[in-house]
Structures are given as C-alpha cells and as structure tokens.
Amino acid sequence: MPSVSSSSSASSSSVSLAVVPRLFCLVAPTDDLALLPALAEVGVDGFQVRAKQATDREVLALTRLVIGAVRPFGAMVVVDDRVDLALAAGADGVHLGADDLPVALARRIAPDLVVGATCRTPADVRRAAADGASYAGFGPVWATSSKSGLPAPLGPASLTRATGPLPLVAIGGVEAGRAGEAVAAGAHGVAVIGAVWGARDPVASAKELVAAVG
Asked: What sequence ranges are listed for the domain Thiamine phosphate synthase/TenI (predicted)?
C-alpha cells in the first residue's frame, strides 16, 4: 500500500508524485467489470470505486473485486467518500468530497491511506494540502453529463492557477484529446468515466488516454 505523510501540514513536498496515478478510471457496479484487468494492463494506474446508491456490503464487495482485478498490474484503488470501507476492503486510498469526512480527520484515522480531495478553487487546493491530502481532484474542467449538480466548467486555465500545493487530477469532460491539454495546463493526471465506459472500445480508449497523459 502506498504511504504518504501523516502530518496535518502535508504539502506537495511531502507527497511523492509517483504515489498519485496519472489516469484514474471511476468504476460503478454497472460497468463491465470483466474489462478491469485489461484496462490496468494497458496502463490505467488508478481506479476509483464510485457506488453511491449501493449498500455498504455491496461497496465492500465491489472494492475487493476491483482490487483483485487490477492490483496485480500495480494499479491503485481508492474508494469514493468512505474511509471506513476503504480500510475494510484493504484499498490504497479514499477520495473525499465537500460533504464527506473532513480531510484532516480522515488523515488522522488513516495515516497510511492516499487521500484525495475534491477541489474547485486554488484556495480549496491550499486548504486540502494543509489538511494532509495527497492530491486534489480538480474540476469540472469541462462540461460533463456523468454527474448532476456541478458548477459551470472551470476551463483548463483554472488548472494552471491552482498548481503548486498538491498534484492535480483533472476531472469533468476529460477525453483523450483533452487529457494532454489538462497535463499541459498543470495537471498531474486526469480522472474519467465516460471516456472509458462510454467508448465503443473501452480498452482502446484507455490506451489513448494513457498515451495522452504520458
């Protein structure tokens, strides 16, 4: 399991970029889970379990399935929202939104987990870094239909303004053509849903994304 600083004053200097995936693929129970090993094999190095309507037991089972499918290829698995389920499943990390457990508390509870924090402004990123986050999931950079209730797209220039305190993982409307643009603007990596699962050939699309984030 990757290790990051447990200090509540963690900064980008205490977080190894090698720990943070360049390409996160979000995974729901309705996705074609049989493709997970192939996605990891072509270079998807991060998987985020996102099952907001599932029971705790269902999330636990899904997380364990994902870990078993992708960890042999060296990929990281994080769980959306739930520190307890991440720990119970033996996941590598957790990704926390604005309404989830505060980052600083999650860091105290789980000092060895990779902790991602959803951020929308440079101030959010600075705060997450001070609280001990490992990376910032930053967005929506472009318009997306994968999640409702999001603010207007921030645009790739917003990544440049937010760089520094933490590795940025750009999310929101990212596809292969935009992944390189996000990295050029300052993102460490990207997170995708539709660009993989909505593609005619998810594995081929993942391969293009891996090449784009380089």
From this structure: 30-196
Which range has the worst mean pLDDT, 3-7, 29-33, 41-45, 148-152? 3-7
Residue 1 has pLDDT above 90, yes or no: no
Helix, strand, coil: what percent of the chain each, to 5? Answer: 40, 15, 40
Cα–Cα distance between 21 and 49 in angstroms, integer? Answer: 14
Q: Which CATH number among 3.40.1360.10, 3.40.50.170, 1.10.10.1800, 3.20.20.70 corresponds to the domain 12-213?
A: 3.20.20.70
pLDDT greater than 70 at residue 207: yes
pLDDT band at residue 64 under the 50/70/90 scheme: very high
- Binding annotation: 48-52, 80-81, 100, 118, 144-147, 173
- Annotated binding-site members for Mg(2+): 81, 100
What is residue 48's DSSP assignment?
Answer: E
